[in-house]
Design a protein that fits this description.
Helix content: 55-70%
Strand content: under 5%
Structural class: mainly alpha
Order of helices and strands: HHHHHHHHHHHHHHH
Largest sheet: none
Number of strands: 0
Radius of gyration: 23 Å
Amino acid sequence: MSLTYGLNFAAIAALIVHTTLFHGQQIWVMARNARGDLDDIHTRLMRKYKNVPTWWYQILLAACVALCFITCLAWPTHLPWWGLLIALLIAVIWTVPIGIVQGSTNIQVGLNVFTEYIVGYMLPGRPLAMMLFKTYGYITMAQALSFIQDLKLAHYLKIKPRSVFWGQVIATFWSCFVQLAVVIWSLGNIEGICRRDQPNRFTCPNGTVFFASSVVWGLIGPSRIFSGKSIYSGLQYFWAAGAFAPIVFYVIARIWPRSKARFVNTPILFGGTLLLPPATPLNYLSWAIVGFIFQKYIRNRFTGWWMRFNYITSAALDTGLAICTIVIIVGFQLTNTKFPSWWGNTTALQTMDQQGTAIIDTVPPGEIFGPKSW
């Protein structure tokens, strides 16, 4: 787990340096011509629709920021107003570099550890403030890129921009009530929810990790873990490693323009590796096989099919998974119906990763990881 934090440090540092070196000129040109339109076929076809007025976004931004201040200041959250501004500023700064990397690789490097790191030093001993700072700094960026992603898809599908805007706003507003209702219902009706031995595996892994992070980064604080002579102080060198790695490949690409160094994406090298844990070798192997089949074999051998149906196939698989989840929960789990047992849904449960036996306990009996006292 400590290595995961170090790789996250490196990925965040590599993001800024990589996008500055490899995409800096492009960012500058696009920023100067932000009010202009690209003269491609998609833009020309979309000109028949009315654009979303800028003041719509400005009003939405003002309303959301006002609600953020009310949330932080009207209740004892221990997050000061200037802390909220810093969190929002982080989201603004990092949206562009993370979006550029995600746009070309479909992998989003998260700001969760970075925001926890910043607020842990800035406001130590405030776990609730840490969770809010993380939400406003990290989730704001993630939601912004999700919004942009939907706008991009609507642009290619020739959907009216104003319809997309209101669809996003209304759906987001409605989801606030739906998600809260689902959580309240689940906590009151699912027996043993959030426990490790819950029969249907409603173990709340995301909620558990979020709470554990509030203790590690908010209550204990990173200064006790990563600073001075602490046990994990060496992980701070990952910041320098992440910042230096893109420079190496950039210099190589400048000296040998045709070398494959120009394709090396260091934020993805660090960001992809940090998923271990919680991802297992089974996850990575599955990703590699599917990626090779669709992005290498089919793309090279059946280019016409790939251009026409690859994206649709991906969307169909995602939709099928969502529908299947609803059918399984409503049709089987909530009705206590025994699910059919066959090798496809039992073999994975018998692996060492699932049973937790792949972890080797190297701590002597009676000892613990880390210092015994702070």
